[in-house]
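Submission checklist for the structure archive. All mandatory fields must be present; incomplete records are returned to the submitter.

[x] Identifier: ATP synthase complex subunit 8
[x] Organism: Hycleus phaleratus
[x] Residue count: 53
[x] Sequence attached
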Amino acid sequence: MPQMAPLNWLTLLVFFSTIFIILNSFNFYTFLYQQKPDKLMPKPSTKVNWKCL
């Protein structure tokens, strides 16, 4: 029976850290937050009178 290649702790740390970062970035970019329409606030428009400046 073939034996597995010996893995040290540093290789496993790099392997699992890479998987962790890939999965978290995938989750970050695929998550869409749906904001409720009643929570949207219109941006107040401020008019500037350029003659007074």
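[x] Structure attached
Curator remark: Helices lie at 9-30. The two ends are 85 Å apart (CA to CA).
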